Amino acid sequence: MKQKAVALRYDADKENAPRVVAKGEGQVAQNIIKIAELNELPIKKDADLIELLSKVELDKEVPEALYKAVAEVFSFIYKVTNKK
Q1: What is the pLDDT of residues 7-66, one digit of tens each?
Q2: Which of 17, 42, 51, 70 is deepest in the core (most CB within 10 A)?
Q3: Angle at CA of residue 3, ends 72 and 74, nearest 5°
Q4: How far apart are CA 22 and CA 6, in angstroms?
Q5: 3-state secondary structure string, the chain?
Q6: Is the Cβ–Cβ distance between 44 and 76 less than 8 Å?
Q7: pTM
Q8: Cα distance between residue 77 and residue 55, in whole Å
């Protein structure tokens, strides 16, 4: 099975919901992960969530039906960044 990755961006001052800014599989997924690592961005591994988010069009906001799942990601990010 090919590796998949989805990158989200959220600017609470400008956006109503997180936005899918990159997604892909194989080499593209590896590049997304490498860029995140180089920029010391938190990475959450969740195959089910990636499957759902990969269906969202690029540069589109995450649909309301996925808010709960994405909230779990932001909770994870909050915990990771506050440990540093």
Answers
A1: 999 998 999 999 999 999 999 999 999 999 999 999 999 999 999 999 999 999 999 999
A2: 70
A3: 15
A4: 6
A5: CCCEEEEEECCCCCCCCCEEEEEEECHHHHHHHHHHHHCCCCCCCCHHHHHHHCCCCCCCECCHHHHHHHHHHHHHHHHHHHHC
A6: yes
A7: 0.85
A8: 22
Q: How many residues make up the chain in this entry?
A: 84
Measure the CA–CA gap between 50 and 52, rounded to whole angstroms: 5
The model's confidence at residue 80, banded by pLDDT at 50, 70 and 90, is: confident
